[in-house]
Amino acid sequence: MADLEPGVIRKLDEVVVNRIAAGEIIQRPANALKELLENSLDAQSSHIQVQVKQGGLKLLQIQDNGTGIRKDDLGIVCERFTTSKLSKFEDLTHIATFGFRGEALASISHVAHLSIQTKTAKERCGYKATYADGKLQGQPKPCAGNQGTIISIEDLFYNMPQRRQALRSPADEFQKLSEVLARYAVHNPRVGFTLRKQGEAQPSIRTPIDSSRSENIRIIYGAAISKELLEFSHRDEVFKFEAECLVTQVNYSAKKSQMLLFINNRLVESTSLKAALESVYSTYLPRGQHPFIYMSLTLPAQNVDVNVHPTKHEVHFLYQDEIVERLKEQLEARLLGSNSTRTFYKQLRLPGAPDLDETQPGDKTQRVYPKELVRTDASEQKLEKFFTSLVKSDSGVSSTSSEGAPPLPEESFRQTAARKSREVRLSSVLDMRQRVERNCSVQLRGIIKNLVYVGCVDERRALFQYETHLYLCNTRAFSEELFYQRLLYEFQNCPEISLNPPLSVQELIMLALESEAAGWTPEDGPKKELAESAVEILQQKAPIMREYFSLRISDEGLLESLPVLVSQHQPNVAHLPVYLLRLATEVDWEEEARCFKTFCRETARFYSQLELQSGPMSGHPRWIMEHVLFPAFKKYLLPPPRLKEQIYELTNLPTLYKVFERC
Description:
This protein is an alpha+beta fold. Helix content is 34%, strand content 21%. It has 20 helices and 25 strands. Strands 5-4-3-6-2-1-7-8 form an eight-stranded mixed beta sheet. Strands 9-10-13-11-12 form a five-stranded mixed beta sheet, with helices on both faces. α14 (505-514) crosses α15 and α14 (505-514) packs across α17 (576-586). 31% of the residues are buried.
């Protein structure tokens, strides 16, 4: 066997090293354009023009009207690690500009023919210089020109034929150039951008100076996106970030996903953030359809590591998972009410065309099996058909109890018109609303929004279907959360239920003390004294309850009205005495935020109590559950994660089919 000799380790020639490094940073014309656009923006340009030939491979020229480059700096501007942004390593921790490593121009000069023409405000004329392999060729030559810089890149990758052959066609490369410039044009609306193919009269992209982001989106991406834009911003003091967003509402969708993400003004990508935001839209958009998202995040510079990728298209930052979750919650809260412009289209059947046989799938490759069929028609027969007892009417004829009819209001309850809407400015209430929106479970909201009601089991439980799953839910827990949220969002604007005649508060509280629910013991003192003390508290706080919650107690101690929280719903009067007693004893009347929260919780607990009584009115609570509560769940409820414990999956169609197949 011949002796195996180890290879000799040699130091590569500096030119080879620089070309290898250049290939990592400048992978295609779009990378060069991104680097040079950032340099132009750093130079405080207000107008940037880009001219392209053969997708940027033959010519890529960027002209701006920024500060320019000083003549004395032209000698080293294309050498590696030369920059005006840094002087020591510690400067990396608080850098606020785009470029900082001094490699963009150096890398380009190693793989293309590079020339720079520039003029500053203080110099009487401009200067033009050419570069090769990072070195100035000759001396800068004086020339005429306006303030700013023109950088011309010709014959990109002329000395790297393998890299050039690996690139796509000029048309594809021009498309990537367009995408990069379009994203910077949206993010920087005060700067005018122009992209033009050499030899063509009309530019491919042109945005005006001092425009707006929404206007630039309309110019570049079209009116279909711009008219559906939803704008919002968020500032988080916990994780120290700010977000500015322009996203499409749920009426818009496209097959191609488009997300423009800037972190500290740097165009980057984030797979985790993109997946999280699109998961929110999956509740609203058809499968395979995607939204348009523009997002700009501002983080403390010391929390961001921008030097993790040669092309700088990725960044790492502190609290990434937590920030992604906060942004996801904010987007879900905004989209919940953004479907006001939603439209649906119906295809008309041509005259004489045969009816479609719905039993035959139109596309054999997309056949829906029976186990995957979803019941969506809420008018189909429900569970009540098998449980509703026959009730004898006055005429002696048997009939079902008030099925499908609205509930009969009790004689003493009469709803009045709603107040004129008033704006809520109390910070405590606004904070409580924001807390509800932040805590909303996106997954559970998607289930509730698309459920199909099946039937009522008892006053606490009901069945509903979501897709191919059958669920049992605790309706009292859901109702309590619903009424709590309605009190917050109808604060100061609740309609009233007038009580005619008014009821004595002291008599009601005495009834409550006589009940087991009050838990009265002799050690608590005489019931009459306790009742008088409770009435005194409620009369003292009557102005608060009247002003904010439409609950009226007169100076004579008479209960005159209660708030309407959901249309067609009235609370169970049997629980009214205990409710008033708990208002006097359980509500924290001293501190504003605690007062509103405990009052809303006690009221929500009172309103959520239904009883399926026997007799002629037995259909009333069931009607309320189907036609009032469940539609209100779908429309209003922002469920917190804890409500997941109140839903139980009983079965699903695929499982049932497996059981039947074994029979």
